[in-house]
Amino acid sequence: MTTTTNCLKPIGIAGSGRVARALGRVLGERGERVACIASRDSERAAEAAEFIGGGVEAVSYAALAGKVRRLIIAVPDGALKSVIETLSLSARRGGIALHTSGARELEDFAPLQAAGFACGTLHPLQTIASPEQGYAVLLGATFAVSGDDVAVEWARHLVKQLGGNAVTIPAGQRPLYHAAAVMASNYSLALLDAASELMALATDTSQDEALRMLAPLARAALENGLERGPLAALTGPIERGDTGTVELHLSALGAAPERIRMLYAAAGLQTLDLARRKGLAEAAAGPIERQFREIL
């Protein structure tokens, strides 16, 4: 690694949300020089600076790129283009900028690249529900990196500082990578929400109580799947080819919202694919698949 990116040059962070705060704090505590943080809202910038600590300065977007040549841009995707345009107005040649978006490529970085910046991505493959929780889980996380060579080199340096794992995402594949992350994180929560809604209907209790009832089952299933792999961990009526039980489920789901019935069928098709790979005979799989496809 060259000294160009390995030396402790000061870092500026664009954005004051959960990712910006968590990343700024953990980088600062791992020896990186986080100098300033910017937001459209001066109060939010000040709050983020206080959370990161270490004398971080709260500044505006217009001032940020004039203060540092190492930028981490942690703003929502919808704001990325306008923030980059603002940063490029005061950017000095020879800088590096990384953004934390999971799905976006470098298409929005043209103004900074034209200003002489090397640009890339540094996306934490981790769910960050709050700055505090994010701070607790970023150490050792996997980060998706891509972009200009110098930017990727700096990104890998930062990941190493965090004791994490850097994975390179080929050009054009970031949306697919991010879809996988969304399914593993957000969609698992959606399935859990739907399951607790059904359990509340079945037991005539609150959804909160239903969620508590389901918690041990959900934890065990996820831990088994992560430890043994989904194929080996799969159990249940589809894995057994139990067409009658699936029919009972679909009939009972007539009393549930249509979105949950369709979710059951869509998830059932993926479960059926697992069961086939595990050895379920087509004579049993075919009738189950037809039931699901009638709904979808």
| Separate helix tally | 15
Spatial shape: elongated
Biggest sheet, in brief? 8 strands, mixed
CATH superfamily of the largest domain: NAD(P)-binding Rossmann-like Domain
Q: Mean of the pLDDT scores?
A: 93
N→C terminal distance: 52 Å
Please report which band the strand proportion falls in: under 5%, 5-15%, 15-25%, 25-35%, 35-45% or over 45%: 5-15%
Order of helices and strands: HEHEHEHEHEHEHEHEHHHHHHH
Q: Quickly name the level 1 CATH class of the largest domain.
A: Alpha Beta
CA-atom Rg in angstroms: 23 Å
Query: Total domains, how many?
Result: 2
Low-pLDDT parts are: 1-6
Strand elements, count: 8
Reported CATH architecture of the largest domain: 3-Layer(aba) Sandwich
Report strand order across the widest sheet: 3-2-1-4-5-6-7-8
Helix content: 55-70%
CATH topology of the largest domain: Rossmann fold
SSE-based structural type:
alpha/beta
Tell me briefly what this model is:
It is elongated and about 70 Å long. It is of the alpha/beta class and 296 residues long.
Provide the descriptors you would attach to this structure in a database record.
single chain, 8 strands, 12% strand, Rossmann fold, 296 residues
Question: Please, could you describe this protein's structure?
Answer:
The chain has an eight-stranded mixed β-sheet, sandwiched between helices. It has two domains: 3-171, NAD(P)-binding Rossmann-like Domain (Rossmann fold), CATH 3.40.50.720; 177-295. It has helices at residues 3-6, 18-29, 42-52, 61-67, 77-88, 110-114, 131-137, 149-161, 174-203, 207-228, 230-233, 237-240, 243-252, 258-278, 282-295, and strands at 11-14, 34-38, 57-59, 70-73, 96-99, 118-124, 142-147, 165-168. It contains 15 helices and eight strands. It is elongated. Helix 6 links the parallel strand 5 and strand 6.
